[in-house]
């Protein structure tokens, strides 16, 4: 039987390289594919394949960041060159951050400093054998990327600058949002130049699980990801001038809405319902809230259930005053009945990554549902089990999910 088994029996040996490369970019975790056969291993290691894969998986804006994050086994000069030639974005800010992060620490020096009790605050986290972003980047790749940045930006490279800090000041970051609006308008041309010509793009955020594991943020972050504090600068500027989103999308930064989604939605609600009400403030209506969020949703932002719970948590001590306005607004935006909306929100509170330290939110939801708390809780648990069994991300897939989970009954 084995005598008849030849390479021609397997389709991967008959497909052209172009087709194999195209298929490869859809593979989320290529390691298993690499060990499946020699040709797949060859395709996975090809620089053009790697470039196609990293751009498809992470987008043009963050592909170089993630290529470096994957380490020397992934990135090389050929791969970096292929990424840029295929449209990967090399921003001036990327070059500035690369200068800060590049290079490994001298572990012997760190050990001696610890033994002599010198500079303890500066070496916390460094003494651990953790590979920080870009610290182990091959020097040939480092030189290539800086050379490319120099060729692209020439005398405007400003390698010792910080475009995120520049953006912060140009958009009136240190001032109140009313004053910042005037400053942003005054600096509009400089901001446009920074985004369109210097390709300013913030680094990607951490995922929610990593933020919970490492709640303390430092700058510059050793893992390279942008901190929440820095991403708030971006979110705040968008809330002042939504046209910035169009500028970023124009240069290929299509992940902008996803990267700062929760911060923008939460910030919009905080502006409508400020913690300290200024003189002359009037409580927004359901219509006001819906119009404000609809404007952001039209740009590409999403009102997901996880951010809804975060907002309710943020206003937990004001729910008796503004809670009804919030849930009516959210239900209208989601195009759901209030009862269905609240039951889905209750399901969201059961997720492991939702940390409700106080019962105010659950009690508020129970208060506006027709059944008693025990019955509603059991319904939520039952429906959550169904979602978990079918591996459904309710925030993103429920609109296309055809299985009836009887939430509205």
Your description of this structure?
- This protein is mostly helical.
- It contains 24 helices and no strands.
- The protein is globular and about 65 Å long.
- The N terminus and C terminus are likely disordered.
- This is 5751_t:CDS:1.
**Mean of all residue-level pLDDT scores:** 84
Percentage of residues in strands = under 5%
Which structural class do the helices and strands define?
A: mainly alpha
3D shape: globular
- Biggest beta-sheet profile: none
Distance between the termini: 58 Å
Count all strands and give the number: 0
Whole-number radius of gyration? Answer: 25 Å
Helix-residue proportion:
55-70%
Oligomer: single chain
Uncertain segments are: 1-7, 394-409
* Tally of separate helices: 24
Run of helices and strands? HHHHHHHHHHHHHHHHHHHHHHHH
Protein name: 5751_t:CDS:1
Topology record:
Blueprint: H1 17-24, H2 31-34, H3 38-45, H4 47-69, H5 77-85, H6 92-101, H7 107-115, H8 120-123, H9 139-153, H10 163-170, H11 177-186, H12 188-196, H13 208-213, H14 228-240, H15 243-250, H16 256-259, H17 261-272, H18 286-299, H19 305-314, H20 319-334, H21 338-348, H22 360-367, H23 373-389, H24 394-397
Short description:
The protein has a domain of 150 residues. Helices cover 59% and strands 0% of the residues.
Task: Pick out its properties.
mainly alpha, 24 helices, globular, disordered C terminus, 409 residues, 59% helix, 5751_t:CDS:1
């Amino acid at each position: 039987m084995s005598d008849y088994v030849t390479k021609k029996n397997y389709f991967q040996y008959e497909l052209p390289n172009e087709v194999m490369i195209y298929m490869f970019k859809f593979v989320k975790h290529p390691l298993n594919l690499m060990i499946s056969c020699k040709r797949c291993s060859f395709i996975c290691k090809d620089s053009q394949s790697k470039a196609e894969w990293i751009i498809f998986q992470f987008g043009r804006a963050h592909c170089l960041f993630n290529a470096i994050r994957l380490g020397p086994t992934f990135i090389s000069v050929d791969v970096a060159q292929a990424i840029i030639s295929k449209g990967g974005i090399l921003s001036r800010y990327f070059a500035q951050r690369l200068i800060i992060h590049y290079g490994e620490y001298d572990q012997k020096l760190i050990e001696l400093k610890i033994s002599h009790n010198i500079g303890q605050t500066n070496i916390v986290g460094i003494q651990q054998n953790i590979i920080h972003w870009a610290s182990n980047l091959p020097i040939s790749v480092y030189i290539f990327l800086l050379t490319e940045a120099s060729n692209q930006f020439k005398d405007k490279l400003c390698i010792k600058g910080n475009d995120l800090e520049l953006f912060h000041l140009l958009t009136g970051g240190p001032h109140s949002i009313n004053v910042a609006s005037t400053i942003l308008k005054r600096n509009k041309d400089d901001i446009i130049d920074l985004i369109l010509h210097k390709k300013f793009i913030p680094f990607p955020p951490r995922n929610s699980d990593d933020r919970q594991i490492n709640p303390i943020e430092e700058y510059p972050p050793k893992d390279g990801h942008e901190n929440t504090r820095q991403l708030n600068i971006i979110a705040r500027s968008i809330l002042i001038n939504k046209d910035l989103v169009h500028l970023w999308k124009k240069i290929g930064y299509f992940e902008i809405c996803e990267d700062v989604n929760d911060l923008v939605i939460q910030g919009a609600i905080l502006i409508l319902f400020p913690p300290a009400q200024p003189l002359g403030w009037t409580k927004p209506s359901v219509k006001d809230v819906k119009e404000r969020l609809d404007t952001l949703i039209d740009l590409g932002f999403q009102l997901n259930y996880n951010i809804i719970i975060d907002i309710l948590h943020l206003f937990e001590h004001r729910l008796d005053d503004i809670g009804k306005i919030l849930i009516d607004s959210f239900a209208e935006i989601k195009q759901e009945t209030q009862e269905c909306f609240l039951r889905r929100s209750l399901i969201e509170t059961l997720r492991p990554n939702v940390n409700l330290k106080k019962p105010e939110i659950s009690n508020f939801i129970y208060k506006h549902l027709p059944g008693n708390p025990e019955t509603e809780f059991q319904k939520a648990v039952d429906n959550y089990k169904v979602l978990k069994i079918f591996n459904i991300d309710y925030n993103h897939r429920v609109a296309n999910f055809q299985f009836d989970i009887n939430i509205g009954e």
